[in-house]
Amino acid sequence: MGKTIWIVTALVMLAAPWAFPGGFALTLLTQMGTLIIFALSYNMLLGQGGMLSFGHAVYSGLGAYITVHALNAIGKSWGWVTPLPLLPLVGGFAGLAFGVIFGYVTTKKAGTTFAMISLGIGELVYACVLMFPGFFGGEAGISTNRTVGQPLFGITFGPSIQVYYLVAAWCFACMVAMYALTQTPLGRMANAVRDNPERAEFVGYDTQKVRFLQLVLSAFFAGISGALSCINFEIVSAENVSAIRSGGVLLAAFIGGIPFFFGPVIGAIVFIFFVAALSGFTKAWLLYLGLFFCIMVLYAPGGIASLFLMQIGLARAGRLRRMALPYALAAAAALVALAGLIGLVESVYRLSDVTSDPQMVLFGLELNAKDPAVWIGSGLLLACGLLAIRFASRTVVARWDAVQQELKGASA
Amino acid sequence: MEFFLVQLLNGISYGLLLFMLSSGLTIVFSLMGVLNFAHASFYMLGAYFAYQVSRTIGFWPALVVAPLLVGLIGMAVERFALRRAHRYGHVAELLFTFGLAYLIEEAVHLVWGRVAVDYKVPAELEGPLFSILGTPYPAYRAFMMFIAVGMLVSMWLALTRTRIGLVIQAALSHPETVEALGHNVPRVFMLVFGGGAALAGLAGVIGGNAFVTDPGMAAAVGPIVFVIVVVGGMGSLAGAFYASLLIGLIQTFAVSLDWGLFGYKISQIAPVLPYLVMVAMLIVRPRGLMGTRDG
């Protein structure tokens, strides 16, 4: 089981560019690879170490800055085979070094205080990046060129398919390494410190040291992902260390499911879909993303991975079909509510932004945001949808409990 | 000299404004264990509501209406969302308020646009109040201080002299006992959360026109308020007070000084000073100014 899942993962990564051809799909796949590393490294803190960080972009961003300077330095005086495939190590060790410096301060505390301090460090670094334009390039950032040095076997890393495979290779290696880390004594101690710091301390471990080591290692992988994004986009700017990035990785990891190692992988894929697919359609995409996140926090704290695993359990017992009807009801109710919400949000946006056209096309319908019928209709849809969700969720819970009872009865 | 005095007054008024934010955050944190990430978003909502209300019925009604609206939103958030998130522990609550901050910022983008709105100081409070050694002092700054101090005194009286205040204080340390005595602790939580939100909203009403009302104001002031709570010591109101004044004075003086330091002017490094104070505090005294807990 363990080995096959890794082999399947590797095969999926190899085949992905053929399964989804086209330049846009390739860009998305490359970004997914980078974000998967980043989200997994984030989950080393939140999921495995119980450290809620609001400033993880500090490590990936500073790793990216060091990488961009290394790449530019190489570009000036390199006549040899291109060193690009090994550059993520530069970013990784840069992240690690900053992890040692900042981790010394942040890991003095756990829990809520850690969260606030990590936010403060994030703001500190962001302000510093804007303050020293000589090294960080100010708002515009620093650009670079990844095709330096002599190509090896004809690989120049110019075409994006080559960059994809570079990212995929690093992504796979990092996934394996981070999974292996969860099996080490340190990984286990991080879990213990997360669950019960007092007992961990009584056993004789220094909880602060465990948190510190976990953070430093996590910063290493974050640095690798930062270096890969630098190679991919050929530019690093203040946005790379910003609170937006830190918040984004938190959202991605949580939506995927922080209690599971593979959760953040799912989260990273979903997140990139959200960003790429939705941002093309609507300016309110962040609102939808935030709403999705809040609903996950309230109703599925284990993320998509936990929902998925629950169904697998049922499917194994052969009872998934019993849930089909309640699930269909719930999905229909959710779709009605969503349609109403989208109608309201888009109308609000069209009305408040004077530059945009109140005439819009929603669900194939020509609608005018100034038309009160649109508002009333959307409001009614939303209200009915919410009521229906209430009803449907009760059905789902009742059926779920009944099926669980049956399973218990069958096993007893 | 007059420069120093004016800056001192400005620093104190800014510090008091920060304390209006950090006090609500601290009370909610001590009572419920929830660090409200969206606290600064309530501040922003207060400013925007005040802008909207003052355009139709004037600034003075807005001073009352906007905080009340924000307080109602806060109560609804506690009743319908936080109470549910509470089942999954404090991290879930913190994550929910983080998502809420996202939502509020995006909602503000949607409704009021991405640029600053024209929320002005009312005409009655424009112009100088008095002059210090020839330098005029703006009336609105004095008004800010008046509101902040008035709010603080009434909050202190409410907490120590009223029945509900005593129940809140009791619920701080022994929620189960208070519940056993027949008080509705969840409702106390809801009222306190709404009250904290309303305080933040009031700070937004008087801060929004003194500074700037734009969708970035929550993200600008939020981290500063967190720094204050860490520097003052988690859960300590007195600590939050001193830290608010300290940070308010540091920020006000730093932006107006052009002394050099390692080739950089102090005004240039002003944005990082609060965070440096926080880092220094964590190294020297991890529990903060008045904190009691080391963990």
In short:
The complex is a heterodimer of chains A (412) and B (295). With 412 residues, chain A is mainly alpha-helical.
In CATH, the topology of the largest domain in chain A is named ABC transporter involved in vitamin B12 uptake, BtuC
Q: What CATH architecture of chain B would you give? A: Orthogonal Bundle
Fraction of helical residues of chain B = over 70%
Count of β-strands of chain B: 4
How much of the sequence of chain A is in beta strands?
A: under 5%
CATH class membership of chain B:
Mainly Alpha
Biggest beta-sheet profile of chain B: 2 strands, antiparallel
Indicate the low-confidence ranges of chain B by residue numbers: none
Count of discrete alpha- or pi-helical segments spanning 4 or more residues of chain B: 12
Shape of chain A: globular
CATH topology of chain B: ABC transporter involved in vitamin B12 uptake, BtuC
Helix content class of chain A: over 70%
Give the topology string of chain A: H per helix, E per strand: HHHHHHEHHHHEHHHHHEEH
In angstroms, what is the radius of gyration of chain B?
19 Å
Write a concise keyword list for the protein shown above.
heterodimer; A: 412 residues; mainly alpha; ABC transporter involved in vitamin B12 uptake, BtuC; 2 domains; two-stranded antiparallel ribbon; globular; B: 295 residues; 12 helices; 4 strands
Structure description:
The complex is a heterodimer of chains A (412) and B (295). Chain A is mainly alpha-helical. Chain A folds into 2 domains: 3-307, ABC transporter involved in vitamin B12 uptake, BtuC, CATH 1.10.3470; 317-411, no CATH class. Chain A has helices spanning 2-19, 23-49, 57-76, 87-106, 111-131, 133-136, 160-183, 185-195, 197-203, 207-233, 243-256, 263-281, 285-299, 303-316, 324-352, 372-411; strands spanning 142-143, 235-236, 359-362, 365-368. Chain A has a two-stranded antiparallel sheet with strand order 1-2. Chain A has a two-stranded antiparallel sheet with strand order 3-4. Chain A starts with a helix and ends with a helix. Chain B is mostly helical and 295 residues long. Chain B has a single domain (2-121, 138-284), classed as ABC transporter involved in vitamin B12 uptake, BtuC. Chain B contains 12 helices and 4 strands; from the N terminus they run H-H-H-H-E-E-H-H-H-H-H-H-E-E-H-H. Chain B has helices at 2-32, 39-56, 59-85, 90-112, 139-161, 163-173, 175-180, 185-208, 217-232, 237-256, 266-269, 273-284; strands at 128-132, 135-138, 260-261, 264-265. A two-stranded antiparallel ribbon of chain B has the order 1-2. In chain B, strands 3-4 form a two-stranded antiparallel ribbon. In chain B, helix 5 (139-161) runs antiparallel to helix 8, helix 9 (217-232) crosses helix 10 and helix 9 (217-232) runs parallel beside helix 12. The longest helix of chain B has 31 residues, at 2-32. Chain B is globular and about 60 Å long. The N and C termini of chain B lie far apart (43 Å). In chain B, 48% of the residues are buried. The model of chain B has no long low-confidence stretch (mean pLDDT 84). Classes of the chains: A mainly alpha (412), B mainly alpha (295).
